[in-house]
Amino acid sequence: MKKEQHQIRHAYLEEYEGASLVALEAYQCLEFIYPPGLWPSMQKMISDASQLKVGGELLVAITNEGMSGLVVYHAPNLDGNRYFPPNWASVTVLAVLPKYRRSGLGSKLLQTCLDIAKTDRAHVLAALLNSRMVGAKRVFDKNGFAESGCSRIISGQKHNQYSLIL
């Protein structure tokens, strides 16, 4: 079976809504970890983040079948960065559709963010991961990130800080 080729690039404006749907589908498997009634607000947060309503740059992975994954990159020194020091870059909504998981696509998206963060002269690239996101933690660990010991409660769930010094 031929391995699927993924092109990583900045999203076009007309792709934001589709990216939101991809992110929601990718995150659907996590619905069970949230208390009853909280999932709709989580879906809104995911959708808002993937449509850049809270800032960032939307990067998408494209195959000949369409969008396969995405990530939102936040440059250092942005006013909206409320979780990390000013000279840190960060990523949110690293999302890969289920059929493309375990193919290296999450790492490829994360590596693209690392390259941009280095160009932006960020000191660190960081993310907050829900402590129950085992697959995401595996991708970040594989790419050299380490849990920094800092955690926050977001939407009733513990999120651990992962970071990589650049």
- What is CATH's topology name? Aminopeptidase
Apparent shape: globular
Biggest β-sheet strands, sense, barrel: 7 strands, mixed
Q: How many individual helices? A: 4
Q: Structural class of the secondary structure composition? A: alpha+beta
Any low-confidence stretches, pLDDT <50, length ≥5?
none
Helicity range of the residues? 25-40%
* Helix-strand sequence: EHHEEEHEHEE
CATH H-level superfamily title: Gcn5-related N-acetyltransferase (GNAT)
Proportion of residues in β-strands? 25-35%
Main sheet: which strands, in order across?
Answer: 1-2-3-4-5-7-6
Regarding quaternary structure, what we see is single chain
What would CATH call the architecture?
3-Layer(aba) Sandwich
Radius of gyration based on Cα positions: 15 Å
Number of strands: 7
Mean of all residue-level pLDDT scores = 90
Q: How many distinct domains?
A: 1
Kindly, what is the distance between the CA atoms of the first and last residues, rounded to a whole number of angstroms?
A: 37 Å
Topology:
Elements: E1 7-10, H1 16-27, H2 39-50, E2 57-63, E3 66-74, E4 88-96, H3 105-119, E5 124-130, H4 134-142, E6 146-154, E7 157-165
Parallel strand pairs: 4-5
Antiparallel strand pairs: 1-2, 2-3, 3-4, 5-7, 6-7
Helix pairs in contact: 1-2
Description:
The protein is an alpha+beta fold and 166 residues long. It has one domain: Aminopeptidase (3-Layer(aba) Sandwich). Helix content is 29%, strand content 33%. The chain has 4 helices and 7 strands. It has helices at residues 16-27, 39-50, 105-119, 134-142; strands at residues 7-10, 57-63, 66-74, 88-96, 124-130, 146-154, 157-165. It has a 7-stranded mixed beta sheet with strand order 1-2-3-4-5-7-6, with helices on both faces. Helix 1 runs antiparallel to helix 2 (39-50). The longest helix is centred in the C-terminal third of the chain and has 15 residues, at 105-119. The protein is globular and about 40 Å long. The mean pLDDT is 90.
